[in-house]
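Human: Cast an eye over this sequence-structure pair and say how the chain folds.
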Amino acid sequence: MASIQIRKYKDEDAETVKEIFTLGMSEHVPSSFMHLLKQPPTQMVLMCTFCALLTSSKSFLLPVLAVTLVLAAARQLVVYMFNKYIDTSLKKDLDNITGTYLEQKDSCFWVAEYDGRVVGTVACLPNENAPACLELKRASVCRSHRRMGIAKALCRTVADFTRDRGYAAVILYTSTVQTDAQKLYEHMGYEKIREFLIPEFIGKLMNFTLIEYRLDLQRDTQNN
């Protein structure tokens, strides 16, 4: 049976890493769209649009078409938000992983290999707002290789790296729609610290919430 190997990133991994990141982020579009539909303002717009057109046109078809168009526009808004984030990330740290993570102090980027194929990624670097912590970033595993313990192995790699360098904790940020990630982090001992809206206009419009988690390494060591 093939084994999982966690190793440091190499330049030849670049395209695979970008693909894993892009596909992983794109998976959250459907759940984010459903999150948007559950928001009271969205439901009010849909209801008012339907009722207003039904009353004014005396036709059932027109309001149905109008609501369909509003839903399509809402989904495109979600797609735009994720595509913008993906594009920004690919142009920033993921465009120069070696320079961003491997050549900087207390930073690193790892990939997970399964049967010689890169199927997962994770990284960490110092957090600007929490000097005593390293921040876990870019955690992603191919859909075809989930439920195999790869994500846990990647998270443990970051925790060990952080502990070895004398930092007190690992922090990370995930979104309210990433329920599987939340379950994983909480299972591994991370505690939810706070929730906050994405500061951009679209994030506020969608009521898209980010969650900050923290793993206290001293307590984690005692529990183990």
The CA atoms of residues 152 and 162 lie 15 Å apart. Residues 1-224 form a domain with the Aminopeptidase fold (CATH 3.40.630.30). The longest helix spans residues 61-91.
